[in-house]
């Protein structure tokens, strides 16, 4: 696989999970892969049961980049989907990877993995970290452990639930997704009040890691705090979107970013004082006449000099913030390694759920009843997933307006998408072959082919003749 030339496209892959012994009695979905040219596939699935009003077969468009069988291990998925993007990230690009599917289909297994000792079964984010550290070791040959320019990986791990983000590397602290005056999205925690009236608002914690084992331990510790809940498939379903960021960093970059936070905390009380002085002077300079109308106070004209002095001090502190932000840019732009700031983003999306109007869904022959809270949470998850699809499609089709504001999830991912114009994005559709999950599987495939077909339709000519393949 090579990185696509249309860097706003999102490649779509299908991964079938194995059918465990407990599900063998329900039968399997009949499926057939169809190859179109070198790197394009479509898929056809067939239900062995008859359902009123539902077609027994469904076929995708030629929009899939590859289809992994149930025998494919995590290492092979990593080598096909991620490995070829390493040069781009080592040149400072941003690459995004998503796992989408219904609960229990293998999303977390694909992104994180469960066997952390066997290199064959590491999730793709850990396999990526392992490869990155090997590349960084070569670049760090001429540095010491205390060198501020020594390269490492900054780990950020947080989950999106309802309208908030929760920092899994900082005691599950709640953070808020906001759009700033600069037009960028910021994810920040609770406001801290410090001595001297300083106010500090910290972003999602970046945990610097200098070797693979350290990163692995930090990641696993953070994942213990991830929220789970009952779903229609199993009782420990991930009911949040988990986001793992791996950024190439050094100590100099982290110190420069910390300095920005400190300068911002110093600016807050000065800015508040300038506002107070302006309001106070403005209020003192007016009065009410006999008719209750506000008019200028002839005995107390506005003291513009006091206002100007307060504004001058605020401008001085704002200049310190600007200087600190410029220093961050300088550290990035003057590094002898172009990889500094390069980043991988892995998103383990919450399981898509599909409820009937009565709040039930039949799974494996049993009717699962949901609570009002379950349905509300599932509606939020499905709204997030719909918004993500629309953002990916709008970018691939070069639409003038990208609907990032449609959900908190897409707001949180906004900066990653914007910065990935010279990177790469891919979505892995995890599906179950169990016959009683046919509807959920088809819904997953429909979602993914809509994502994949946007890029295919935006940049390609005629497809090659189709060739049916055995699965």
TrEMBL record:
One of its GO terms (cellular component) is kinesin complex. One of its GO terms (biological process) is microtubule-based movement. Coiled coil: none annotated. Keywords: ATP-binding, Motor protein, Nucleotide-binding. The keyword Mitochondrion does not apply. GO terms for molecular function: ATP binding; ATP hydrolysis activity; microtubule binding; microtubule motor activity. The keyword Nucleotide-binding applies. ATP binds at residues 101-108. Residues 9-454 form the Kinesin motor domain. InterPro entries: Kinesin-like_fam (IPR027640), Kinesin_motor_dom (IPR001752), Kinesin_motor_dom_sf (IPR036961), P-loop_NTPase (IPR027417). Belongs to the TRAFAC class myosin-kinesin ATPase superfamily. Kinesin family. PANTHER family: KINESIN-RELATED. This is Kinesin motor domain-containing protein.
């Amino acid at each position: 696989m090579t990185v696509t030339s249309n860097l706003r496209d999102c490649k779509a892959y299908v991964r079938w999970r194995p059918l465990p012994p407990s599900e063998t009695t329900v039968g399997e979905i009949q499926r057939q892969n169809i190859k179109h040219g070198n790197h394009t596939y479509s898929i056809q699935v067939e239900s062995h049961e008859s359902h009123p009003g539902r077609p027994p077969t469904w076929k995708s468009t030629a929009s899939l980049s590859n289809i992994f069988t149930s025998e494919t291990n995590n290492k092979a998925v990593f080598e096909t989907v991620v490995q070829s993007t390493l040069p781009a990230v080592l040149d400072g690009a941003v690459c995004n990877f998503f796992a989408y599917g219904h609960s229990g289909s293998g999303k977390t297994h694909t992104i994180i993995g469960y066997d952390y000792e066997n290199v064959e079964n590491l999730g793709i984010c850990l396999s990526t970290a392992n490869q990155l550290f090997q590349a960084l070791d070569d670049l760090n040959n001429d540095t010491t452990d205390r060198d501020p320019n020594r390269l490492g990986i900054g780990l950020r791990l947080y989950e999106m639930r309802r309208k908030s983000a929760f920092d899994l590397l900082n005691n599950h602290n709640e953070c808020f997704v906001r759009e700033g005056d600069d037009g960028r999205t910021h994810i920040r925690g609770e406001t801290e009040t410090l001595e001297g009236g300083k106010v500090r608002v910290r972003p999602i914690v970046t945990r610097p890691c200098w070797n693979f084992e350290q990163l692995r331990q930090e990641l696993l510790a953070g994942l213990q705090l991830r929220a789970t809940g009952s779903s229609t498939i199993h009782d420990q379903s991930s009911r949040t979107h988990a986001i793992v960021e791996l950024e190439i960093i050094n100590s100099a970059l982290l110190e420069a970013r910390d300095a920005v936070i400190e300068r911002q905390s110093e600016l807050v009380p000065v800015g508040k004082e300038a506002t107070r002085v302006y309001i106070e002077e403005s209020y003192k300079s007016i009065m009410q006449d006999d008719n209750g109308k506000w008019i200028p106070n002839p005995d107390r004209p506005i003291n513009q000099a006091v206002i100007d002095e307060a504004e001058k001090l605020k401008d001085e502190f704002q200049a310190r913030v600007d200087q600190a932000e410029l220093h961050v840019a300088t550290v990035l732009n003057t590094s002898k390694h172009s990889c500094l700031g390069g980043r991988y983003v892995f998103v383990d999306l919450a399981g898509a759920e599909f409820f009937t109007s009565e709040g039930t869904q039949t799974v494996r022959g049993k009717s699962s009843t949901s609570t009002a809270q379950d349905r509300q949470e599932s509606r939020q998850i499905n709204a997030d997933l719909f918004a993500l699809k629309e953002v990916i499609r709008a970018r691939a089709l070069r639409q003038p307006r990208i609907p990032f504001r449609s959900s908190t999830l897409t707001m949180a991912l906004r900066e990653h998408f914007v910065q990935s114009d010279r990177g790469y994005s891919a979505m892995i559709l995890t599906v179950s072959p169990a016959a009683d999950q046919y509807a959920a599987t088809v819904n997953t495939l429909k979602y993914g082919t809509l994502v994949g077909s946007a890029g295919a339709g935006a940049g390609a000519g005629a497809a090659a003749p189709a060739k049916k393949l055995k699965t």
